[in-house]
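Subject: Protein record for review, amino acid sequence with backbone structure tokens
How to read it: Take the token row as a discrete description of the fold.
Enclosed: The protein record, placed directly beneath this head.
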Amino acid sequence: MSAEATNPGNPEAGRRRGRPRPALRGLRRIGRAALLGPAPRDGLPDALEHVAKVHRRHHPDADLDILSKAYHRAESSHRGQLRKSGEPYITHPLAVTLILAELGAETTTLTASLLHDTVEDTEVTLDQVRAEFGAEVCYLVDGVTKLEKVDYGTAAEPETFRKMLVATGNDVRVMSIKLADRLHNMRTLGVMRPEKQARIAGVTRDVLIPLAERLGVQALKTELEDLVFAILHPEEYAETRRLVERYAGRPDPLTAIAARARTLLAEAGIDAQVLVRPRHFVSVHRVLLARGRITGADLGRLLVLVTEDADCYAVLGELHTCFTPVVSEFKDFIAAPKFNLYQSLHTAVTGEHGEIAETLIRTHRMHRVAEAGVIALGNPHTPTDGADAPEGERADPTRPGWLDRLLEWQRTTPDPDTFWTSLRDDLAQDREITVFCADAAPDGPGGTIGLPAGASCVDAAYARHGEVAHGCIGARVNGRLATLGTVLHDGDSLHLLMAQESAGPSPEWLDHARTPAARLAISRWLARPQGPGEPPAAPAGRRSERRRAPSHRPIGPDRPAAASVLVAADLPGATVRLAGCCTPVPPDTVTGFAVRGGTVTVHRALCPAVARMAATGRQPVGVRWRGAANGGQGCRVTLLAEAFSRPHLLPDLTEAIAAQGAAVVSAAVEPPHEQLVRHTYTLHLPDAAALPSLMRAMRQVPGVFDVVRAATAMRSGNG
């Protein structure tokens, strides 16, 4: 766009080893033709000839009349305008259109790219574009048109990106045009002042390159990375360039490995192309940082292209059979594609002289998508051809989950500065995981959630439930109870536990939230006005310290158990007492030990105290319950209830206990930690047979996930 139009006097910027800058000859031809004006030849302007030739290579039946009409409108509208380099301004939309044509964009996208600056920089209006070229082209042009600084001031740039992202949510071709527009401006950035170059390169690095990665447009992303690298890190760029040039005159070890691979695959009857694919400068620099040194084999990778998916695995088998594979380098992105549509097999094999060749194996279609991403998928507004598809439904596989999440949280972020900061943070998270939801609702977003790598259960809760996630009290990850701070991994199964009544998120949730959606929602809750009598929220980011000693709060009389009536001991005259550590009840298997004063303490057979006393050589005393029942005298039992912290949990539990006819002898409540809390109850039951139903009733209290006998908890390591 005009604000970024600059001098093309740096033709070497962005050139890669072994691969000239895309369509450089075509751009020069476009520039010469633009200087001569729009004189037609065979009905097609000279300036548009190369674009049309490239476009027909991808779309042989394309209608070029609409492109010719768009060119005439753009050329007449921009006539008299010059870029800062002195070239006619029309060379810029023509160059952007050629970039998209090389990537296989369809005709509507090319039409909009020719017109993309007319509404912003000329007297042409959106209504005129709509009347001449239709609603689709008008929507794309509007999507990439900047907002005026006169109207928005310093918020113009973030609000322009917000507008562009919202438009991309309905049609990803908007962002395709913006990326091509930025690439051409970055190629010709030399005429700008250094500080403006750095500012534009910074925004490109923080926002547009991550968007290109997420949309899978690797051809644009890699060149943008090199251009940004040259501006923001000129010394490292120059050193990397010298390193690449140093190896340029030497024999390439990958060439020999590629030749051998071609022979092996041909002998195996596999039709495959084996190419040496040079790395771009940023990729070489990353290898240097990771390994500390560079070899000739590190400057490129092997690319094997086949026809069918099955051939990819056949190639993999041959390479691993005839070469020594580096097992740790194998990745299967065909069975599990990346979130940006990328599919390929990655492996590495060792050559005869020990050099390691990283290898990519993919079909020709996968290669087109890997290079052009969403651009290779065509028009998302084309109706589906499937017989089962609803009439008029869009075939839009280009609407990824990360974009849905981004659009969702931006709606609740009116402040431009907060939006701009959150956008950069969100885009900085360059990997994504998929989590399978066990609590999938019929009207929910399906059974999976896409999240950035490193996301926690807190992030998953807000991604799935929005503001309702304030009531999340815990989760089960892969069937096991987990705190909300648990970090999720790709392929995890997640069941979020929600409470109908909750105290809301605590400040420590911010420590676990990685996604802007979660952080913004939690921050809004914590900043809300406090209700009357409601305790103020603790400062964000401070974790509450867990006290190790439980807080004992007796809430009932402590009565001794009538053990002598319940249990008979094989020690005449001994007083019998039920052990408080495990509180046995009929029909538990029990054993006894004599203690001081001639008393026999009765334990459950599984009580850890039994094992400890037996290990010291103490002899057990035979004990048994008197009869099948407990003689109507009742019994005492200690239960541990583990639950998620919520308001009114204690009265709800005691109410459930009372409803079963049990009396609370004493209770201890530990301070909550990460939303988890443990209650210890010593209860008096009128009949030991009522214990199973009592434990079931306690487990049914909302928020309670387990109730166990005291010794069981101790034995399993939970006590």
